[in-house]
Amino acid sequence: LRAKYIDLIANAADEAALEEVRVGALGKKGEVSLKMRELGKMTPEERKTAGPALNALKDEINAALSARKAALADAALDERLKGEWLDVTLPARNRRLGTIHPISQVMDELTAIFADMGFAVAEGPQIDSDWYNFDALNIPGHHPARAEMDTFYMNRAEGDDRPPHVLRTHTSPVQIRSMEAQGAPIRVIAPGRVYRADYDQTHTPMFHQVEGLAIDRDISMANLKWVLEEFVKAYFEVDDVKLRFRASHFPFTEPSAEVDIQCSWEGGVLKVGEGDDWLEILGSGMVHPHVLRSAGVDPDEWQGFAFGMGIDRIAMLKYGIPDLRAFFDSDLRWLRHYGFSA
Ligand code: PHE
User: Fold this and answer.
1) How confident is the model over 263-302, as pLDDT tens digits?
2) Can you tell me which atom of ligand 1 is nearest the CA of 305?
């Protein structure tokens, strides 16, 4: 019996086979277990020799089982290590670097261009009170501009007596916040996210604007025109470009103008600064006295201009991106195609 089991254990090929051997010998109905049960029927004389012999056999089988089990585990590990060995001298595999999103790229370009003209960067919250988003900008409660803007309003819990808040519909509330914080004179741009409930090929519920604000003692529309010309030339990388100021209306500027840039569309390709087409790129005007007053700036002493421009739109124009919605799809192929390397 001993020779049989020592042999079986030595030849067990894996843990499952080994377990089978164990059950065959030491399991409830195992050969050794049955023999041990027979001890009861033996005479005391017989039992004296058979008992210790069987116990010794049982111990020996158990020891052989554990030794074989350890040997099998070692062999399995060796096998795995052979398969998974690592050549640390191999050159590293290339990892794909991410790219700069076109919106971030354009924001960086804008910031650099306006920094050269003395504009600092200002920021405001994306969730703002309707006072900053509307009232302070001379848009009172009944004003149609509120309805036109497809505003997202924040829910208020019962008993919450904070003023109503909105997702800002434009970057213009940053005009108020930066004048409150800094007073006049001031020269800032404020790039950032804005929100309107609108969705089609040219509208997404979240998009980006950059606000511009320059307030001093004698700033005029002429300064606005120069700053915008310099901006358009630098941004579109052209030596010369005509700008067209079209009379318009915004509650927070007076007078107001929408600004078009000269361009051509040869074969569907936009060229800025040549041809005789016009492309609207921004709204602007002289900051309304009410707006200055809301922000604690005295309109008898200070005046200046403001403008607001869609960043997504000028990014599409410069980099030939056809569909606005693709900006926000997070499609890696699109991002690799239109993204900028760091
Ligand atoms: N806030 C305006 C808009 O969102 C743009 C604008 C900004 C116009 C500043 C005039 C002055 O359309």
Assistant:
1) 998 887 888 999 999 999 999 999 999 999 999 999 999 9
2) 11
For the segment 46-68, the average pLDDT, to the nearest whole number, is 90
Nearest CA to ligand 1 atom 9: 307
Q: Which atom of ligand 1 is nearest to the CA of 308?
A: 7
Distance from Cα 287 to the centre of ligand 1, integer Å? 11
Which residues contact residue 244 at a Cβ distance below 8 angstroms, ignoring those fewer than 6 apart?
259, 260, 261, 262, 278
> Hey, whose CA ends up nearest to atom 6 of ligand 1?
308
Does the CB atom of residue 173 touch ligand 1 within 6 A?
no
Residue 283 CA to ligand 1 centre (angstroms): 5
**H or E element, residue 64:** helix 44-83
Residues with Cβ within 8 Å of residue 198, at least 6 apart in sequence: 150, 204, 205
CB-ligand 1 contact for 136 (6 Å cutoff): no
Give the DSSP per-residue string, 144-201: HHHHHTTPPBPP--TT--SPPEEE-SSSTHHHHHHHHHH-SSEEEEEEEEEE-S--BT
With CA atoms as reference, report the closest residue to 56 among 81, 35, 73.
Answer: 35
Q: Are 154 and 128 in contact (CB under 8 A)?
A: no
Q: Rounded CA gap, 311 and 255, in Å? A: 23
SS3 127: strand
Between the CA of 342 and the centroid of ligand 1 the distance, in Å, is: 32
From ligand 1's centre to the CA of 39, what distance in Å? 102
Q: What is the ipTM of this complex?
A: 0.98
What is the residue type of 316? M
Of 195, 185, 188, 207, the closest CA to residue 123 belongs to 188
Instruction: Give the pLDDT of residue 156.
Output: 86
Strand-pair partners of 265: 270
Ligand 1 mean position, distance from CA 223 (Å): 17
Annotated binding site for Mg(2+): 254
